[in-house]
Amino acid sequence: MTGSVLDAEGLRDRVQKRLDSFLESQAPLLDDVSDDLGPLIDTLRGLLTGGKRLRPAFCYWGWRGAAADDGDAIVDAATALELLQACALIHDDVMDDSDTRRGQPSVHHRFAGLHRSSQWFGSPESFGTGAAILLGDLALSWSDELFFRSGLPADALLRAKPVYDLMRTELMAGQYLDLLEQARGGGSVERALRVTRFKAAKYTIERPLHLGAALAGAPETLLRTYSAYGLPLGEAFQLRDDVLGVFGDPTETGKPAGDDLREGKRTVLIAVALQQATPAQAAVVLRHLGDPHLSQRGIDDLRAVLVDTGALGHVEALISTLTDQALASLSPVADPAREVLAQLAVAATARRV
Amino acid sequence: MTGSVLDAEGLRDRVQKRLDSFLESQAPLLDDVSDDLGPLIDTLRGLLTGGKRLRPAFCYWGWRGAAADDGDAIVDAATALELLQACALIHDDVMDDSDTRRGQPSVHHRFAGLHRSSQWFGSPESFGTGAAILLGDLALSWSDELFFRSGLPADALLRAKPVYDLMRTELMAGQYLDLLEQARGGGSVERALRVTRFKAAKYTIERPLHLGAALAGAPETLLRTYSAYGLPLGEAFQLRDDVLGVFGDPTETGKPAGDDLREGKRTVLIAVALQQATPAQAAVVLRHLGDPHLSQRGIDDLRAVLVDTGALGHVEALISTLTDQALASLSPVADPAREVLAQLAVAATARRV
Predict the structure, then answer these.
(1) Which long-range contacts (CB under 8 A, 24 or more apart) does A247-250 make?
(2) Residue A195 — pLDDT band, cuts 50, 70, 90?
(3) Of A143, A152, A22, which is closest to residue A83 (Cα–Cα)?
């Protein structure tokens, strides 16, 4: 996504500053425990540098769309979502055994490297996994800590906490369904869409908007408007991500070309292709998908099947329809949030291949 | 620990009832997402059945010791600590690759078994690890959810939240230090005691007492009293656990005999033994400790070294001194909490071998 609309109100800089100052305030706590904890906070700081800050943006604009004023406290509360996302990324990379994240070694690889270079006892991989599990737990804990330290009034925080809770539960549930989908070998378009709905639509867009609205004390009708915007947009956004995962430019996605194919991700794109495939095309998919040693030739063959079955065209059409649906729901939202949310919808789903 | 003092005020039953009703209230959330999420809640329910409920007990008696009255809301808030502990156990078992927990298969083994019996694709072990990471994350999230849903007044909850936050951070930090200690091969009594301090003394006893006191709005002096009681007692309690891990009855500990030795746990007991050992005795320790295939003969040889070096005697004396120190600090605490905390100190550290 091109960055400009995400930078409205200087939001990305403000989120980064808040993350920096929060980590700085936590460092002495860890130092009090032991000098040996430096790598935990350094690694988290590294992971939290960069990123699109999508979830804080939706939370912030959910607040503004309820006609609430700009302020540092709402940015702080919104920034908490980046720490939740850090947990999701760290734990997800352990589960997928991903090598890289945002162009850097993934957290468990980084700690495995520390173990190796320190020539410690035991398995570097086990140490890396253990450290990454704990750092994810720390990020998850720190997320609601930052939320409550935002300086918003107690009644606003307590009113919004159930939304925050629901969002976390849906995130974990969606991740488990994703795991299950890979284990079952996928296949159904409906089940793949359900994973998308919970992992992306609700967690990335709808619930952050709801959180901002609940903090602002918005009426139930605005929450419904945000669902009508956020759910189709979230699905469209995830579908765009799936397309980029197969056809995207590695310098933009931050992942090696074909990584999603090597991982065997059971996306909607794949499910549609399998539904439409001839036996010969299906055989290509089943032979290559999830092969960790997939070659460029294999990637090209898979891409051809995704195009020739019409799956790519179908998914592009679905992205357009869902995005239009999202845009059509925005009229009750207060300006300037309405305009920003419209631009976000377009930017998040634009064709980039 | 014999149960009676932990049952004072019917606490164990009340905690169990609250856990049951909380999980029952969460089940529909997961059912709304998908029918496939049943194993998550069933597994968590299984793990949360039984257990000593030590942390809820210390939180509850921390509240009562501030002269606050019994009530269901404080039991609810205290019960939140069992969900935090569930996260710690689930993730700990993944990190240690433990087979069992409380006499049942550990969570990651249980999900690996589900994968195997369902004949799904991919590695059962990876699926088990992924599911256990997510279920631990869910338990961690649900812990502060239950805390805020306890029905205690908003000002009490917000006043106590920083204690809760600190406790979680110290728990994760302590777990990381433990991991680091195993990787470095341990050796220093001082470093082993530091792990004990954070993993056990602060997390199990001092912070739960502080949490209860903060919820009750107790003065700072009572928090200091609880530290003076909780820190030495927590160390004594962990030392007792270390001794039981080597010399204890498997029917009481719920772990196979010698499991801590097979895992290579770098406890204070081991550190003292290595410090006092002759070269021949040290060789026995280094040969057997951490051997996953350690035989009964090897266990007996290791036990003999722990006795003959005087390490066991030293640790028993340390347990006595620390327990006496804890007992001597209780005078400012309101009755009946003072009496119960005194009994808890004795019960938690009593010799059982």
Answers:
(1) A247/A303, A247/A312, A247/A353, A248/A352, A248/A353, A249/A352, A249/A353
(2) confident
(3) A143
Contact between B134 and A198 using a beta-carbon 8 Å cutoff: no
Chain A CA closest to residue B37? A173
Lowest mean pLDDT, pick from B140-154, B209-223, B236-250: B236-250
Domain spans of chain B, in order of start:
4-349
Say how many CB pairs under 8 Å bridge A and B.
Answer: 161
Q: What is the ipTM of this complex?
A: 0.90
Report pLDDT digits (tens) over B161-177.
999 999 999 999 999 99
Between CA A254 and CA A244 the distance in angstroms is: 11
| CATH topology assigned to domain B4-349 | Farnesyl Diphosphate Synthase (1.10.600)
Structure tokens at A175: 């991740």
Residue B74 contacts A, CB cutoff 8 Å: no
A129·B154 Cβ contact <8 A: no
A contact residues 284-343, partner B, Cβ 8 Å cutoff? 290
Q: Measured between CB atoms, does B12 come within 8 Å of chain A?
A: no
pLDDT in tens, A220-267: 999 999 999 999 999 999 899 889 989 988 877 767 778 889 888 888
pTM of the model: 0.91
Measured in degrees and rounded to the nearest 5, phi and psi for residue B100 equal: -135, 160
